[in-house]
Each structure stands twice: as C-alpha cells, then as structure tokens.
Amino acid sequence: MLPQRSRIYSTDDARRLARRRLPRLVFDFVEGAAGRETGAARNLSQFDEIMLQPRVMADVSDCSLTTEFLGQSHALPFGIAPMGMCNLVHPNADKSLADAARSIGFPVCLSSAASTSIEDMAQLAGGHAWFQLYFGASKEASLALVDRARTAGYETLVLTVDVPQVSRRLRDLRNGFSVPFGMSPRAFLDFASHPRWSISTLAAGAPRPMNFEGTKGVNTFDRGASRSGADWAFLDVLRKEWPGKLIVKGVTSAIDARRTRSLGVDAVYVSNHGARQLDSVPPAIRLLPLIRDAVGPDFPLLFDSGIRNGEDVVKALALGADFVMIGRPALFALGAEGPRGLTSLLQSFTSDIRVVMAQLGVTSINQLGPDVLFDNTAQPNDSPDTRTQATMWLAAKP
Ligand SMILES: Cc1cc2nc3c(=O)[nH]c(=O)nc-3n(C[C@H](O)[C@H](O)[C@H](O)COP(=O)(O)O)c2cc1C
User: Fold this and answer.
1) Does 20 map to a domain?
2) Total structural domains within the chain
3) Using CA atoms, how far apart are residues 50 and 56, in angstroms rounded to an integer?
4) CB of 112 closer than 8 Å to CB of 145
5) For ligand 1, atom 15: residue with the closest CA
6) Which of 60, 134, 224, 290 is a good FRET partner for 167, with 20 to 30 A between their CA atoms?
7) How confident is the model at residue 390, as a pLDDT?
8) Domain presence at residue 264
9) Whose Cα sits closest to atom 28 in ligand 1?
10) How far is the CA of 149 from the centre of ligand 1 (A)?
C-alpha cells in the first residue's frame, strides 16, 4: 500500500482537518482563548497589516535558515512553544515533537503541565528540549521541578509569568473540560462520535499531567490554581538557583521587559499566551517592536502568539525577535494527521521562509531586520539611505 500523502499545506488545512478528527472538547481546548476571543483574532489579523518590501536581482541561490540563539546553533529560526497536555491531540504528540526537534535541529519546550515527564522528554529530544516552569503549589515544590530538570540535563529553563490566575475560557467551561479528564454525558457523546481518536487515546491511556507525580510537595495538578507565586522575588531566587539559560515568558510591557532584563535573565519571551489569558490584550506582534526598543538592539528576544506560517516568522524576526515559537499550528497538525501532519506543517513553514527570503533578497536569518519591512509612512521624496534603523522600525510598526 502506498504511504498516505499529507493533506496539510498550511495551518488552515491542519486546523480544518483537526476540527473534523478531534472531539470538540479537545479541539476547543487547543483553539479556545480568553473571553470573547477577540484578542486571539487580533493576534492573527495584525500580521496581515504588516507588509514586506520585495527586492530584486540579488543572488539568493545559497540561502541558510541556521539561526544562532543563546549561544546555540539551530537549523531553523523557530521552535515549539510550551503547551500542556499535547498528547490529548495524538497519543504520540510529545514524542513526535521531540523526534522532529532532534532530527531537524530545533528546540521543543516541554510544559510543566505536559503529559510526558521531564525525564522522558529529555531522553526523547536529547539536547533539544527546554523546560517551561509554572509556579506550583509552593516555592519548594516549584524548585523541586527545577531540580528534576537540571538532573535530567536540561540547559534552558523558561519561567512563564502571565498566568497569575488561569483565565475563564468559555469553550472549556461550556464543554466541562478538566484535567485529568472527567467523563460527563456530553463528553461521552463527543468521544463516541470521534471513534478514531477515542480508540487510539484509550489504547495509549488517557493523558495525565506527568510532572505532578513523584515530585516533592506536589502530588496533584490543579489546573485552576493561582500561579502568582511567580513574582519578582521568585525570579531573583530562580536566577540564583538555575545555572543554565533562563528565559521569562509572557512579557508584554516594555517596563516589565526592562526590569526582567535587569534581573540577569538571558532572554525575554514576548508572548500574550495566544490571548488565552486576557481577551483585551494588544496583539503580541504589535508589542514586539516596542519591547525591542525598550531592551536595546542586542538583548535576546523570543516571540510567539499568532504565528501561522513562515511569512509570519519572517515578520516577527524583522520586527525585533531573535527566535520565534510556534504554538497552536503544531497541535492542529498533530491532531489532524499525527507525525505525518507535523512533518508536513514544518515543511510548509520552512519552504515559506525560504521563498520569502528570496523575495526579500536576503540569504541569512540575521539579515532580517526592519529594512525588509514596507514602511507605511514613506513619502515620495524620502531617501531611505538617510533614515536610521530606529526610525524605520517606528515607521513600519503595525
Ligand atoms: C493547548 C495549549 C496549551 C498551552 N499550555 C501552555 C503551558 O503549559 N505553558 C505555557 O507557558 N504556555 C502554554 N500555552 C501558550 C503557548 O506557549 C503559546 O504562548 C501560545 O500558544 C501562542 O499563541 P498561538 O498558538 O496562537 O501562536 C499553551 C497554548 C495552547 C494552545
């Protein structure tokens, strides 16, 4: 029998197929956002407002996507954002992400709330796994997770700070979504009408938050618990405790970004959590150049929230990110077609980036700066040569 061809050429394809294949409760957990979900829509639509300036007749035959970030060389300018309970969309989701990270050479960030343990992911992804920390039941319990990550060989720790309280996600409330799963009559019907998903999930065992078993002081996972212990004092403690690279995720204010930098972290991760936390949050891509201005040209910045294709990756790099992370699209692809879908989606991102770079006349990732953006405010007599990078940045801001 011929191997089945993927039907995924874009995030939209992956989303459409995942919506069909996954129980509604699972699809909504992935796609849902805070409140009326206007913030999630703005995260995407804002990318459409940003235009790129094509350049012609450059020799772009030899193009490289290799990206240096925090002292490491990655084959691609993007990695996979931390997402809890990935194995809900496919029993092998975390393993597939780890396999891709290892074989292609990009980072995959394991969530505290993952359905794969810290130790297993380290084995699966080799040196490509990062660990994302949510402040847990106490400082001691949180540092116990950090200890496990260090013992397992992780070198990069991401502290998420934008979940002081888990927001009200209406889809999850209406669907009765909980972790671990509770089986309401509605969920039963939902699962029964998606037998392919239900049989494979049942065979593999319902996914559980695997990092909350066997950790000192943390025996259960409470999805709704406050994580507000991740405050400035805790960050200070963490910086002293963690010898590796430390990244703070969920920063959207220029003031917070400067303060975070002053505490000695290695990078700030600009993200609005895919608008899963606050409906009225500004689009993350709009915040990125403001934070770039605030922290200076050389301080490492990561970005996520709204990336849906390779062109978006290029836009984020041009607007000040040094590295980009992909969230929901990866889960849509895995939910739609499993590992094959993920491979196809990653290929679509990679080909997009190559084609866009060729259009822009650049051959390496570090050439993607503000001058590849179309300047919305340009006047006929302006000379681009006399304008500084900073003014171009401001002018091109969405
Ligand atoms: C299903 C799901 C689970 C997530 N879980 C976590 C998590 O455990 N920790 C975290 O820092 N961010 C988590 N996030 C947020 C992502 O890391 C990322 O910021 C977000 O998905 C970016 O938005 P986008 O997917 O719309 O691009 C989660 C996102 C989704 C969709």
Assistant:
1) yes
2) 1
3) 20
4) yes
5) 273
6) 290
7) 47
8) yes
9) 83
10) 20
237, burial (CB in 10 Å: exposed 0-12, middle 13-18, buried 19+): middle
Q: How far is the CA of 378 from the centre of ligand 1 (A)?
A: 36
- Could you tell me the distance, in angstroms and rounded to a whole number, from the CA of residue 81 to the centre of ligand 1? 6
Token pair recorded at residue 229: 């212990």
Determine, yes or no, domain membership for 104. Answer: yes
pLDDT class of 214 with cuts at 50, 70, 90: low
User: What CATH number did the domain enclosing 267 receive?
Assistant: 3.20.20.70
Candidate from 30, 172, 328 with most ligand 1 atoms within 8 A of CB, to mutate: 328
Which tokens is 73 given?
Answer: 């060389």
Tokens read off for 71: 């002292």
Domain membership of residue 41 (yes or no) is yes
Domain residues for the domain of 241 are 11-370
- pLDDT tens digits along 308-320: 999 999 999 999 9
> So what's the pLDDT on residue 378?
77
pLDDT digits (tens, 9 = 90+) for 119-177: 999 999 989 999 999 999 899 999 999 999 999 999 999 999 999 999 999 999 999 99
Q: Which residue has the tokens 């805790």?
A: 234
Instruction: State the average pLDDT for the chain.
Output: 93
Answer whether 87 contacts ligand 1 (Cβ < 6 A). Answer: no
Quote the ligand 1 centre to 377 CA distance (angstroms): 34
Active site residues: 273
